[in-house]
Amino acid sequence: EMLEKGGFDHFMLKEIYEQPRSIKDCMRGRIYPEEGKVQLGGIKEFAEKLKNIDRIIIVACGTSWHAGLVGEYLIEEYARIPVEVEYASEFRYRNPIITEKDVVIAISQSGETADTMAAIEMAKERGATIFGICNVAGASIPRLTHAGVYTHAGPEIGVASTKAFTAQVTVLTLMAFYMAQQKGTITTSKLIELLTELDHIPEKIQVALESNDLIKEVAEKIKDSTNCLFLGRGSGFPVALEGALKLKEISYIHAEGYPAAEMKHGPIALIDEEMPVVFIATQNSSYEKVISNIQEVKARKGKVIAIVTQGDTEVKKMADYCIEIPDANEAFLPLLATIPLQLLSYHIAVMRGCNVDQPRNLAKSVTVE
Ligand code: G6P
């Protein structure tokens, strides 16, 4: 088993460190930065259909659902197609309005999640076209769908999903660009610019991983907390949700992710010196707004841990701890900001003596309802 872990103490840590590689594998043969072109062989037979769709519905569970929320931002931003993101378990028991013009994207690492499979079957009966985003080749979901794109992240053993999540986000990024290309909502020069940057994201993830020692120090400081809040805006919001899910899954600390601006409608009541608040505070369109949210937390003596853009000076004046990630286009922020949050949860869980790879009561794939 030590051999399988490749020298790492846990599969989760190994999988976190595999991300520069897994994301590269996920993009291989699919992006052509010099030409400004995305090719997704798995869905190419639907290329024409994508020009005329009214709506996309994303269905998933758990971490895959968080990836779906990132996908919503990207698809709406670039392809200008309205997107709804649904928990498969809820969607399957509603009487949703689905037409033949709808495309349903089912996201699943394992490809075996019972609720997601049931949601697919229902949408299929009602005439929708179903795309899958899966990690396990030949699993049940890829067989149920009309077409799909594999994440190619390699086997994920840790119950808490890490590299599968970033690979799902990568595929959704590619899908957003692909749909934009089909619909003509993006110019070739813009695609050249975005794809050139995306091509270098694996190296930036490598840089983000280099904050590991600092993250360990931060983990030491907050490991005994009983609650933790994660806040972000825009596509930083699903990153906050995923950060909170990772922490609660493996360390058993109660954690909540919230859109930073919603804090004033509830979570702010919980803030005191015992409450660590993790902010996604990178330099993008919501930077100034997030700064004022940080001030609100500091005014109530909360402990602020901020994920910031390299070289940031503003947030550093206010936050108790800052963890830097490389600068990037806002589209790629979720891929980078997720990395320190994975490491933070990992170290906290190890320090608390938890079974990181196999947390209590959780299963890698949930094949029953
Ligand atoms: C379980 C796993 C999660 C995963 C979720 C959905 O809860 O512990 O890590 O996100 O199922 O699984 P799927 O395989 O469909 O992505």
Automatic annotation (TrEMBL):
Q: Where in the cell is it found?
A: Cytoplasm
Q: Name one GO molecular function term.
A: glutamine-fructose-6-phosphate transaminase (isomerizing) activity
Annotated active site: 364 (for fru-6p isomerization activity)
* Keywords, alphabetical: Aminotransferase, Cytoplasm, Glutamine amidotransferase, Repeat, Transferase
Which EC class, in a word? transferase
One biological process GO term for this chain? UDP-N-acetylglucosamine metabolic process
Q: Which residues form the SIS domain?
A: 46-185, 218-359
- The reply on keyword Zinc-finger is no
What Enzyme Commission number does this protein have? 2.6.1.16
Q: Indicate whether Manganese appears among the record's keywords.
A: no
The lineage's top-level taxon is Bacteria
GO CC annotation: what is one? cytosol
The reaction(s) catalysed by this protein are:
D-fructose 6-phosphate + L-glutamine = D-glucosamine 6-phosphate + L-glutamate
Quote the subunit structure annotation: Homodimer.
Biological role stated in the UniProt entry = Catalyzes the first step in hexosamine metabolism, converting fructose-6P into glucosamine-6P using glutamine as a nitrogen source.
What is the protein's name according to its record?
Answer: Glutamine--fructose-6-phosphate aminotransferase [isomerizing]
Q: Which organism is it from?
A: Pedobacter roseus
Q: What is the lineage of its organism?
A: Bacteria, Pseudomonadati, Bacteroidota, Sphingobacteriia, Sphingobacteriales
The gene coding this protein:
glmS
